[in-house]
C-alpha cells in the first residue's frame, strides 16, 4: 500500500497547466463559459475549483520564497513559521463569526457542520491514510453518535453534555469490536465488508422503531445553551464544535507523530515486516478502528445537535462515501487535509446544488476520479509538494549538473518513483 | 411445505439475478483483482438505457440485445479510459476510482431520469399469469430468468473453454506476463473482460427491473447481495458466483420468512452476516482457490 508515493512535478503536466489556466482565467476578459447551454453549469464549478487550486499553488510558492530568509535560519525558525501557520488557521476559525456572512454560501450552521465533517475525516485519515485500512463505513459510526444523543435525550432524559461524552465512547467501543473481524480482511475485501456495514445502518434504524422512532426519526429539544452564555446559542455551539475539533486535531497529530503513528505506517507499508519488528498488528488495527469510530461518533452527536433531527435516511451509504471523498480530496495521508476535506464536503455540494439536485454527486465523482490521476495526495499533499518544490526544486537539480549531466542517473525524483 | 417450495422458487429467481451480477464482479476480479464497486450502478444505468429504447417504441427483443452491446462497449471504454491508468496503482486508488463510478452513474441517472420509479415491462412472449402445478404457483417470468441464466452460462462456458479468444482471456487472467510473452494482447483481454462483465451486469439489471421498479437506487441492494454471493461462491470462480447467488437468494427468501427478527426489512443484514461469516471461516469461498501469499 504505497499510495503515499513521491509525486514529481517535472514529469507531471498538471501543475504547469493549472498555473497557466489560472493565469489565463485571471487575465483574460471574463468569457462567460457559464452561458454555454449544456456544459456551462458543469464547467463553472470545475473551473472555479481549478482557479482556487492554482491560486493556492501560487500563494504557496510566494510564501515559500518570501519566507525563505526566515526558514534558512535553522530548525527553530522553521518551527516558528509552522506555528505561525497553525495560528493563522486557528485565527481564521476563531474570528469566523465576525465575517461568516461575508463569505458566499456560508453561515454559522454550515461552518459548524463543516467542522464536524473535519472531525470524521481526520479519523478516516488516521484509519485509511496512515493505517491503510480502507473504510467505507464511517457513516455507521456517525449514525451511532447521532442516535446516542437522540435516544439519550428521549429515553433517558440525559443532559446533552453527557451524551456528547457517551457518543464517542460507544462509537469507539463499537469500532474497536468491528476491528476484530476487520483483522482478517485486506484491501478491497475490507472496503466491501465496511460498505455492507454502512448499508445496514438504515434498515437497522428502521427496525428498532421503539428506540429510533423508525422512519419518522427523532426530533429534538431545541437550541442548547449553557447558563453562562448570554450570546447567540448557535455561536456557542460553533465554538464548542471548534474547540472539540481542535482537541481532535491535536490528538490526531500526536498519534501520527508518536510511536502509535509510526507503528500504523509500518503496518500499512508491510504488515509482515511490522509484525516481525514486534508491532502488535492486531491491537494497533483494532485501536485505530476504535479511534476513527470515536471521532465519527463525536461528530455524529454534534451533528444531531445542529440538525435537531435524527432519521434513518440521513445515514445512507452515500454519507459514508462522501466522507471518504472528502478525505481523499483533502489528502488522505495528511492530518491538515481534513480541514480542506471538511470544507469541500460542506461547500462544493452547496454551490453545485443550484445546477441540479443530483449535480453535487456527479461533480464530486468526476473530481474524485480526476484527483486519483493527477493529485493522489489531495489538496494538502499538493500544497505540501508545491511548497517543497518552491523551496528545494532548484537545489535538487544541482548534483545532477555537477556530475556532468549524466542523462540517466541525473534525473531527480527518478529514484523515488522507481522504488515504489 | 407448499409455502417452502414457493419461497424456494422465488428465492432461486432472485438468486439468479444476484448470481448474474456476481458473475460480472467475478469476471473482473479474476483477471484484474479489482472489486468493481460501480458494477451495480453501471447495470442500473444500462437498464435505464434499455427503458429509453422501450419507451421510444422499440420491441423488447431488439432493445435488450442493443442495450447489451452498448453496455459491452461502455465496459470496454471504462476499462481502457479510466481503469487502465490506475491498473498498477495501490488498492485504495482503484477502490476510490470504482467508487467514483458508483457515485457518477448513480447521480447521472437521478439527474437524467429523476427519482420517480418507472415500470419496466415483462419480455414479450412471457405470460403474466402464473401456472398452477398442484398447490404451487410457478411464475413464468421466474422460469424465464432461470433459462436465461443457464443459456448465458453455457455461452460463457463455450467462449472460455472452446474458443481461442477464451483461451487468451483465461491466460491473461492467470499469467499476464507470460501471456504477453507468447503474443496475447493482455491489455485488450482485460478490457474485453470488463466489456463482458458490463454486459452481464446489464442483463442482471434488465432482468430484475420488472420485479422491482426501476429507480436510480434499485441496484444498490442487489449489488450488496451479489457481493455476498461472490464472496460465498469464491471471488475467482464464475460458476461459484452463480451457485453462490442462487444459494444467497434462498437464504434471503427463507431467512426473511422463518427468522422472526429478520423479516422483510432486514434482509440486507443477512448479506452482511454471510459476507463476514464466509470471510472469517473460509475466505476463499466455496469454490475459490485458497490464496497463498509469498512473503
Structure explained in plain terms:
The complex is a heterodimer of chains A (420) and B (295). Chain A has 420 residues and is mainly α. Chain A has 18 helices and two strands. Chain A starts with 13 loop residues before the first helix and ends with a helix. The N terminus and C terminus of chain A are likely disordered. Chain B has one domain. Chain B has eleven helices and two strands; from the N terminus they run H-H-H-H-E-E-H-H-H-H-H-H-H. In chain B, a hairpin with a 2-residue loop joins strand 1 and strand 2. Chain B is globular. Classes of the chains: A mainly alpha (420), B mainly alpha (295). Chains A and B meet through helix 8, helix 14 and helix 16 of A and helix 4, helix 9 and helix 11 of B.
Helix content, binned percent of chain B: over 70%
Mean pLDDT of chain A: 78
Number of distinct helices of chain A:
18
Strand order of the largest sheet of chain A: 1-2
Distance between the termini of chain B: 53 Å
- The helix content of chain A is over 70%
Major beta-sheet overview of chain A: 2 strands, antiparallel
What structural category arises from helix and sheet content of chain B?
Answer: mainly alpha
Q: Count of helical segments of chain B?
A: 11
Distance between the termini of chain A: 10 Å
Uncertain regions spanning at least 5 consecutive residues of chain B: none
Radius of gyration of chain A: 23 Å
Which structural class do you get from the secondary structure elements of chain A?
A: mainly alpha
Overall geometric form of chain A: globular
Low-confidence stretches of chain A: 1-11, 394-420
Overall number of strands of chain A: 2
DSSP strand content of chain A: under 5%
Main beta sheet of chain B, described?
2 strands, antiparallel
Note the run of SSEs of chain B as H and E: HHHHEEHHHHHHH
* Share in β-strands of chain B: under 5%
